[in-house]
């Protein structure tokens, strides 16, 4: 078996994240991953219920080394987790909180080890079922969607190639890591592009602006249209950025222009779903050829005899058919 690396393009001493104003090096992260992996039970499934984004990344990486599949429910209320555990035998929970879930073994992440010495980058089995993500349940019962390490890594590479983010960039996410949009942009993208991610998940415009101001450039914001609308209307303007990534709902040209003028950076809209991940992008400025959807590398779109649009991707588990999938402006 030829494995794919847990992370890419991190030179020695590079940062993988910040917690408040404390930088976290890639060596410290890898040391903490190895230490946590040695303590995890060898079970098939684990629920990653961490709120702190760096703790989430640590738990996710350690579970990969322990060959567990991470379950990422968007609803992390104790009652929902109990219901989830019924459908997944041999499951435990990794958390950085204090809530307990009856019948579910809990591994609590505390302070990270202080070791900062050289550490090898682990290789992960490309066919390992790395995560199971769940739809929001807004149209019914949340539906599970499994992803292999290969499909997640290749999806991150495709996103990186399209948006042009450089190693050493810093990202701030305002979407939880358990959500597909937050997971692929603030967990997988940093791991596979040499970028650092902030541990927090700010909500209010003033909190978002303050968190961004603490990050060194180049710095990017990962958000949704409601977050951007609140920031555009706020009295706490965003600092100058190098890029904004937006998804989960349609982004208007007017809002995109307002945000671009505020932070003096391109606003890139990503089209995708829990089932597919990101599959297309556009710059929503209303004045260029980029203001139409362009598919990620290797993805093609067609239709069948019934008019259903077909998405063909080299890093998805088979061909997908979705009538709602429209890659046009």
List the helices and strands and how they pair.
Blueprint: E1 4-5, E2 15-19, E3 22-25, H1 26-39, E4 45-48, H2 53-65, E5 69-72, H3 78-87, E6 91-95, E7 106-108, E8 123-124, E9 129-134, E10 144-148, H4 149-163, E11 170-173, H5 180-191, E12 196-198, H6 205-213, E13 219-223, H7 225-233, E14 243-246, H8 253-263, E15 267-273, E16 277-283, E17 294-295, E18 300-303, E19 309-312, E20 320-322
Helix pairs in contact: 1-2, 4-5, 7-8
List its traits.
329 residues; alpha/beta; Rossmann fold; nine-stranded mixed beta sheet; six-stranded mixed beta sheet; 28% helix; disordered C terminus
What is the tally of helical segments?
Answer: 8
Give the number of DSSP strands: 20
Helix fraction, binned, reads: 25-40%
Number of domains: 1
Q: List low-confidence stretches.
A: 321-329
Strand order of the largest sheet: 3-2-12-11-13-14-15-16-17
CATH superfamily: ANL, N-terminal domain
Distance from N terminus to C terminus (CA atoms, Å) equals 42 Å
CATH class reads Alpha Beta
Structural class: alpha/beta
**Approximately how much beta-strand content do the residues carry?**
25-35%
Mean pLDDT: 88
Look up the CATH topology.
Rossmann fold
Q: Which term fits the overall shape?
A: globular
Q: N-to-C SSE series?
A: EEEHEHEHEEEEEHEHEHEHEHEEEEEE
Which second-level CATH architecture applies? 3-Layer(aba) Sandwich
Largest sheet: 9 strands, mixed
Rg, Å, rounded = 19 Å
